[in-house]
Amino acid sequence: MATLAPELRHEVDAFDVTRPELYRDDAWHEPFRAIRAAGGIRWTEGSAFGDYWSVANYRYIVEVESLPDLYSSAAGIVVADFEEGDVRLPMFIAMDRPKHTGQRRTVAPAFAPGAMARTKEDIARRTGELLDTLPVGETFDWVDTVSIELTTQMLAILFDFPWADRRKLTFWSDWAGDIEAVRDPVRKAERLGHLYECAAAFTTLWNDRFGAEPTSDLISMMIHSDAMREMDSQAFLGNLILLIVGGNDTTRNAMSAYAYSLDRFEGERAKLERDPALTANAVQEIIRWQTPLSHMRRTATRDTLLDGHRIREGDKLALWYVSANRDEAVFENADAIHVDRPNARRHLSFGHGIHRCVGARLAELQLSILIDAMRERRLRVHVTGEPERVPACFVHGYRALPVTLERY
Ligand code: HEM
């Protein structure tokens, strides 16, 4: 389809839901509500990321993700296209079958229930230690002090990454996930530099562990996995970066959403504080409500019909999880948190189908440990000002969240 000239962009389509300000200002609810009300599938032309289909309701996202040969991941997983000169490391999230299957197998055991049970104690101890250092009654930034620190610690444990340098994982992940930076030549070059630095650091770790005895960290697991035969060093690095980015911004923003959302729904927080049996469901509900990644992208491999809409080969489709998780056809009173919502688990925040998040159990474990550790210490978060939100249509979260803690 024809692309509109840049000067005509934005005024044209009020329902271009890729606009960063919608997320910066928390103003995405209405355009998505309107798209869902009109059937849930909408074509947008001339956005800053080119032309794309919005798939905004629950059932069509499930349909698209259930047909991975028709709706491919190989052309990229975000609405932004790869640009000339950008780093493009092979990652299994951006591959189709059968390559995807083999490479996913190298890391999946690290997230199996047995592996989770082994890391649980370590994560619980470190979470407890961090909470015990927090000031009660004084304002601090929850994002940096709690969400980023806990997520970064978890990743450092997972990779057995040098502990003192662990904040570099956050730094690299932030750059890798910044799809707005790709459009600015200066920031794009800066981003490339940081990603090369990240690749170099992991190459060193890989070389150190290559000839060594197997250990339980992810790098060693990947080196010694059978499926590693299907991966060259580029793919190895790409998949490591995928794990850092995949586990970082996402889990971080689920933790920030715990603090932010429950302070808005105090009655629900009281229920959760009283009843430890609600933790597991509350974890799902918070992840539904926040939806830490707003979308994933697919590209049609041939002409097809989706609910009667003519999708052409090469068209890109943005699957808006952020909208599907507010779809009233599935979630009653979807804008509200209900820690005991019966179907909270059905959320699409982890995606659906063959690419469904491989790290979901780890993210759930981390959040549940945080909730339980807060309850055990009788600590409650109060938000003291508006959060600063990430101005982008991919990572859906918070840059800063001023809070105080109360002991109840
Ligand atoms: C895939 C979300 C935590 C690693 C995905 C996908 C989503 C997602 C939406 C794509 C699903 C699809 O295309 O159908 C989240 C959220 C998290 C989280 C919301 C936290 C609340 C993690 C963690 C890790 C991780 C902790 C690892 C440390 C991955 C990987 C993939 C993936 C490797 C690619 C899976 C594949 O293509 O087969 N995640 N994720 N994620 N995630 Fe997560």
Automatic annotation (TrEMBL):
Family: Belongs to the cytochrome P450 family.
Gene3D superfamilies for this protein: Cytochrome P450 (1.10.630.10)
GO molecular function: heme binding; iron ion binding; monooxygenase activity; oxidoreductase activity, acting on paired donors, with incorporation or reduction of molecular oxygen
Pfam families: p450
Keywords: Heme, Iron, Metal-binding, Monooxygenase, Oxidoreductase
Family matches, as PROSITE patterns: CYTOCHROME_P450
Protein name according to UniProt: Cytochrome P450
Origin species: Sphingomonas yantingensis
InterPro entries linked to this entry: Cyt_P450, Cyt_P450_B, Cyt_P450_CS, Cyt_P450_sf
Keyword presence, rRNA processing: no
Cited PANTHER family: CYTOCHROME P450 YJIB-RELATED, P450, PUTATIVE (EUROFUNG)-RELATED
SUPFAM superfamilies assigned to the protein according to its UniProt record, in alphabetical order: Cytochrome P450
